[in-house]
């Protein structure tokens, strides 16, 4: 494992498109799983950095229609997205004969470091489009925000070049499956996200990765700025916030939420917003 990581580090410093010639039948599998576990370690290191960035400049997302169906999401994230991105960012990294019409093999070899680095950085910064932010600080912190994607870019490029396209596609899909399972486990362990029961309000909030459209429910009983009942099932938090506080007033880091809130005497909307902000990223939009 150490030799594989040393070889990977040498590749990062001086990339070449030389394919690995295995001397044992299990060489490819050892490289594959070594790089997978390396990514797990890197994830553990980078997560605190991501929390710091979220504190300095909250990151916002919107739920996608693909998130409404587990099967569609799995096919998209584990199979299709890795395939498309591998083709777009790494398929070209092995020299082909027809490249000779544009660039000689010798010129390719001499400049391969910059070709590989360009691929990695384009891949990393393309992931900024996953977020809704558009402020100056977001772009200043961009390299930190996509730091994990930049590491991924080097890992997938290494696998693509040394083992082949199928292996880099497979590692990408396998990694997405792992992170999907990890996130799902964390959500199950954290639910209910919020549970409040006092004389003023009774409320429980749960989140989910996907939504079951057969359970959709949105019921509000309110009077001016006071809420008496809020029953939400399987709606994006962004839609809940837009409904209560006005569309375009707040940005959120989106989740599908179930909210069961009751208050006999009434509970002010601004007080509810304070409770929501304790568990979710919700910030006013500067106009």
From TrEMBL:
Q: Where is the CAAX prenyl protease 2/Lysostaphin resistance protein A-like domain?
A: 69-178
Report the InterPro entries cross-referenced here. Answer: Rce1/LyrA-like_dom (IPR003675)
Q: Which GO terms describe its biological process?
A: CAAX-box protein maturation; proteolysis
Residues that span the membrane, as ranges: 31-51, 71-93, 114-131, 137-159, 171-189
Could you list this entry's UniProt keywords, alphabetically sorted. Answer: Hydrolase, Membrane, Metalloprotease, Protease, Transmembrane, Transmembrane helix
Pfam families, per the entry: Rce1-like
The GO terms describing molecular function are:
endopeptidase activity; metallopeptidase activity
- Keyword Transmembrane helix among UniProt keywords: yes
Keyword Transmembrane assigned to the entry: answer is: yes
Protein name according to UniProt: CPBP family intramembrane metalloprotease
